[in-house]
Fold:
Amino acid sequence: MKNYDYEKHVKGESQFVDDLLTPAGLLYVHIFTASVAHAEILKLDYSEALKSRGVVDIITAQNIPGENQIGGIIQDEPLLADNEVHFIGQPVAIVVADTVLHAKEASGKIIIEYKNLPVITDPRLAFQKGELIMPPRLFACGDVDNTWSLCDHIIEGTTESGGQEHLYLETQGAFAYPLESGGIKIVSSTQGPTQVQRAAAKVLGFPMNKVEVDVTRIGGGFGGKEDQANAWGAIAALAAWKVKKPVKVILSRQDDMRMTGKRHPYSSDFKIGLSKEGKILAYQATFYQNAGAAADLSPAVLDRTLFHAVNSYYIPNVSVTAISCKTNLPPNTAFRGFGGPQGMFVIEAALFKAAEIMGVDYHKLQELNLMEEGDSFHYGQKIENSTIKRCWDETIKKYDVDSIQKRVDEFNKNNKLYKKGFALMPVCFGISFTNTFMNQASALVHVFSDGSISVSTGAIEMGQGVNMKIRQTVASVFSVNIDRVKIETTNTTRTANTSPTAASAGADMNGKAAEIASRNILDKLIKVACDKLNTKDPSLITLKNETVFCNNKPELSWNQLVQVAFNTRTNLSSHAQYAVPDIYFDKDTNTGKPFAYYAIGSAVVEVTLDCLRGLYEFDSVKVVHDYGKSFSYVVDRGQTEGAIMQGLGWMTIEEVIYNENGKLLTDALSTYKVPDIHFTPKEIKIEFLETVENGAGLKGSKAIGEPPLMYGIAAFFAILNAMKAFNPHKEYKLSSPITPEKVLCEMYSENVTVPA
Ligand code: MTE
Ligand code: HPA
Ligand code: MOS
Structure:
């Protein structure tokens, strides 16, 4: 089964927000933003700008009819700056004009005066100054304090992991127009239409039923549009309401990079205690999360860091603390993995360092500590039907890690200027929103009288293939050809109160809702068939390949059945909700069973390092992953490869740099480097583990969107191993991304000369 969107994408036929047919009289927005990272606004004068050619209106915080507030989890984020600005790129005024150019021109004529305030960009400094988004969070089990004395090895260290730009191909944007009822309709590039609806309604002072949000698909989100599409949706809606005309907001690439938040950078301290055999006895860590100037999704991201702080390892005594630090940067946000990768990076760094000090292989230490069936995580959830060891063992066996080791050692013996390194990475990623209430979805299915089917859910197609999965699910319930099933746009008037498509749970939850709604209709159709075929026993009726069988005898076509149902006034529509069963979490004790199940796998990454230039090439990434019963090898492989590339990029060449004034220096693709085809590993092998159907997933499958990103973490340690082969005398910083520049600076910092 392929992703149906691909063909349209290739032909350029897929529509994104900026491709929509636009009505006559459409107006455009340019957003005037803060040019300093922390200041009091002394003066804002837009009188000249208002006279600029083509300008229709300029809107500031004073014009907001409802609440100037778009904070989701914590109400701490104004839509438009009022008295103070808190980061460079913060929206201050909305310039509405007849063209983008005119709006931009006028924006340049706005006069603003600031009284500068101290700028903080470093999370540890923010912590020292008491600038926190919320109180620290602690997850713990066992007794760490009393375990250190039992440990043969205690290793402490500090790690850094960097931010990451989402770089969705479609930049943020929205299009809004007034409706005759006084309401507003917004077409938004968002992962969360309900969230855009809620934010816009609040800003306008409307009840939610006066705001309709519609999404066909988005050109990538990667978490960047889970929360951060809200501002642009609300701005378009506010402008459309004020000028009573259709209005479009599309951020330029540079504005998008400058104004929106990214993956949270973390600075962390760890302390790990091991027995002489290498079993981890205790693990303590403190995570300083760089949240930026407002909470956004930071508290939820912070929790997932704590959930995944032990990755796939069993540790009896754990105490991990996470602190969300408020800095003068754009609010950082969801990014594929949602804090999980940041947590896993630290435990891997701790194990890597422990292996170094203990003189054992890093991957042997990893292996020794893998969770066993029935082990519990530090927050209490037991791992059931675990494939952690199976994936790991198959990775070792299938890809012959022993011979990789031999080859690498041999290569390093024979080469002075090039060194190889490899590393493994197990991944165990919890599937469910960690906020339990968010684990619900709904769907509306119609069977039309001609036998065609329409499906609406809360899922957003962003390239991950969720529409294909839902389409296939519905087609299989009715046993009809998939071409009969149409996935409708995601619209808040058809599916209400939806969670964003996120947490890798979009297909699971929306697919299950669509499955339930379809079954409801199927049940009715079977009754109709019973009546028509004069049988009382519904178990005798089956639908297969568009044919109705009674007692295994073909009797009616799908079309005939639907026609009879319609003529007998049967309800051919159903709305259904799906709430993930059996999950709960106590936010006071931080224990419970927050996840429906775990996504699991292992990878080995091999790299060749050019020690003269600091450049590296990935020889291979080889994976064994548990997909449950996969829907589609093509789509799941695509998700895996894409996530791996994003993980590799995060760990290596993608470097978000702000200067001390809070100005983003990497605000274009000339300065922010992402993996391209040349960077792609020479070999990517993906093995689908033969496994049982996963009952908690859609049709036995397992969520795949985020988990493989964390395989990229092995890239960091593979490079470090290669660096160690070149200069073993150096203690390398556990600081990612490990860019080629950093590799060079690190390797040569101790009077190491280039070998002859
Ligand atoms: N794949 C593509 N092509 N584009 C995206 O934006 N987002 C990722 C992942 N895969 C993304 C993607 C993220 S962050 C998540 S949470 C999941 O898709 C969301 O979709 P799902 O829940 O249907 O897996
Ligand atoms: N993952 C992704 N998005 C979320 C989550 C989560 O666990 N919780 C709230 N939003
Ligand atoms: Mo994905 S970070 O949960 O949108």
Summary: Residues 226, 297, 300, 304, 334, 338, 433-435, 438, 502-503 surround hypoxanthine (ligand 2) (CB under 6 Å).
